[in-house]
Amino acid sequence: xxxxxxxxxxxxxxxxxxxxxxxxxxxxxxxxxxxxxxxxxxxxxxxxxxxxxxxxxxxxxxxxxxxxxxxxxxxxxxxxxxxxxxxxxx
Length: 90
What we know:
Blueprint: H1 6-32, H2 35-64, H3 70-88
Helix pairs in contact: 1-2, 2-3
């Protein structure tokens, strides 16, 4: 088996954690079988997604520090922030 970089492993673990949270939320929604509770759970998930996205991006940028230009890193962070902002706009 090949050695996995620590930053890559961190991203993988965060994504697995995120998937586990999503599946657990779906199971809780199924268990309660109540639309209002499902909407509350779904609203809480709306916080998890962008947090994981931003965290994994920052970890990735940290791992690539010195390998990509500062301009590319700034553009990537700005793109992520635009995605998150566009999700919040009604």
